[in-house]
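Q: Sequence in, structure out?
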Amino acid sequence: MFGIAIHGGAGTLPRAQMNAQLEQRYRDGLAAAIEAGAAVLAAGGSSLDAVTRAVASLEDEPCFNAGRGAVFTLDGRNELDAAIMDGESLAAGAICGVSHVKNPVELARAVMEHSEHVMLAGAGAEDFALAQGFALLPRSYFHTPERWRQLERIRGGEAGLSALTISHVGTVGAVARDVRGNLAAATSTGGMTGKRYNRIGDTPIIGAGTYADNRSCAVSATGHGEIFIRNVVAHDIGARMRYGGQTLRAAVHAVVIDELPKMGGEGGVIAIDPDGHIALEFNSEGMFRASQRAGETAEIAIYR
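A: Exactly. Output:
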């Protein structure tokens, strides 16, 4: 038995701004990613390979805020973050602030598997990428007109506009259980539109936006990163299960619905436990998401 869930970010476009053509594009991107990850698992592949493949697919779809199509910093650059974790060994890898790596999730995995470190940043992470045989791409590869227009609106000081609302709190991620019962999680993001000072959110921080432990669950988060860091969201869900005896659904609900709103934290998580139970929970208007288990068809959704 296997299972996989993916997300393309919480805090989606309000229904009033979503048209049929755009919605279909999002659904097609989610469908391609869940299919890619599920195919790995159906063939007996590892949960690590499945989440890597699914997240890379989302990074390649420009409508999501990761990889190509990531948002811009205030000075017009892309700063990409990603993390991956193996629930069997608790090995983890993360990168942050890179600007030339096509699939940041693959570099995060290389950090996990081919270095003695957990997190590498900026130019150092890209030096490591070159040493590992990654090709560095020009910044023009990541540029999309829609993301640039969002930055110009921030720069113009449009009334009522913030980095949170304009980015739709975008992040992508995947969690999976393979046929051997091993769990894995991976997350990737471009962060917030108009961010400054090399700001880093929860995505690459193990235990905040990404966590996997075969003794509890695998979690990938999306939302207001500062709040998710302060609440150590991904690890908190696992700890509630491991030490408090909560079910996956109860632990996820307690954190996302009960705890995060108290601090103004908007967003959601996807999670899977060792028995293949899947939870997809969010406290925003919507969350781009999909899930599939062995013998079942994929379920794809945006709003409640």
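DSSP finds nine helices and twelve strands in the chain.
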